[in-house]
Amino acid sequence: MAEDEQGAVVRTAHSSARTVSPGSAIVTDDAFENPGLPEHRDRVTDKDPTKEKAAERVIVTLFVVSLLASVFAIAAYFIWPINREDITSVRWTTMFLGLGIALAMLAIGLGTVAWAKYLMKDHEMVEMRHDVAGSPATRRRAVEIFAQANEESGFGRRTLLRNTLIGALVALPLPGIVLLRDLYNGNNENPVKLLKQTMWDKGVRLVHDPSGAPIKASDVTIGSAFHVIPDGLVDLEHGMLEEKAKAVVLLMRLPQEDLKERPERASWSYDGIVAYSKVCTHVGCPVALYERETHHLLCPCHQSQFDVTEHCKVIFGPAGRPLPQLPITVDDEGYLVAQSDFTEPVGPTFWERPNA
Asked: Where is the sequence biased in composition, kind Polar residues (predicted)?
């Protein structure tokens, strides 16, 4: 391409040149020539029937491995159960479940990719653009295309491949179904009732989590926050995790003048000390981040925020209601004790839906 004082030379698709004046539109030839498709190269499985059968056997093996891995994941859920008294057992359950499900997904993915790469027809084609229409001719052609795809892929012809793939696909979601199904047991009590009854009761001391040391009101300074459980929880031999999940409390002390308490709840705190459930009312995550300057509690899971100065009302995020408050006072020795259990269910709001 060259340029002089009279104008610019523009090279077109056919390597011809035209001269145009500066500022005028560029003139080109009509259309680019169709370069055509590259020469087709046959794969080794196209040329050698032995290689084709070997590839098919490998793919079948991958589908069988996927099926067996799904079965293993289900079996692992029962072979390595979660011991409610030993939280470390979760590691083994999670590891073997994860290995089974991951291997099942990996094997079925590798098998389908290998099927498409080594056994399905791979001839190049050009599909011209056309108007989208639902005419009878278009529908007939669609049926022909599906029939052709079935023939070229061998889906209807390669029965062993097809059946192992179907078996692997059927088995793949079973571990998830088993896990989700086990979350519900028809013999369980109503969840609202379960979440409304905790170990807190009149006179039960507030103790440190996890040491179990009792807490005096004088130990709680302004701006401090304590993770609290009911006295006697650490001594439980069975059911400790379930009870702790419901009864955990966050204890804080604010300047008395900062509290905006409703008259009916004014006696629920003691000298600026308040106690609220740590279980978020959104989906049950632990609310454990306390902002001393703003007196806000933050749930790290979905960023719900609660205002401690106003009975932990929701000021941001998806939580549906305030955190339940634990009424507290002090005993004759100055230790903080509960006045009663929570007056409402702890945990996610969805448990309180009708027929929950």
From this structure: 13-22
Counting Cα atoms < 13 Å in the Cβ hemisphere of 108 gives: 22
What torsion do the CA atoms of 289, 290, 295, 300 make, to the nearest 10 degrees?
0
Predicted confidence (pLDDT) at residue 12 exceeds the cutoff of 60? no
Among candidate residues 284, 195, 206, 201, the one with its CA nearest the CA of residue 246: 195
- The whole-number average pLDDT for the span 303-322 is 93
Pairing of strands 313-316, 17-20: unpaired
Domain-by-domain residue ranges, the chain? 1-32, 44-124+136-181, 191-352
Confidence of residue 96 (pLDDT cuts 50, 70, 90): very high
Distance between first and last Cα of the chain: 78
Copy the structure tokens of residue 150: 């079935």
Residues 35/47, Cβ–Cβ less than 8 Å: no
Q: CA–CA distance from 323 to each of 3, 134, 154, 264, 276 (Å)?
A: 78, 57, 60, 17, 6
Residue 317: count other Cβ atoms within 10 Å of its Cβ. Answer: 16
* pTM for the structure as a whole: 0.52
C-alpha distances (whole Å) from 315 to each of 70, 250, 282, 320 are 44, 18, 13, 10
What topology does CATH give the domain 191-352? Rieske Iron-sulfur Protein (2.102.10)
What pLDDT is stored for residue 21 in this prediction? Answer: 47
Report yes or no: 172 and 108 within 8 Å, Cβ to Cβ: yes
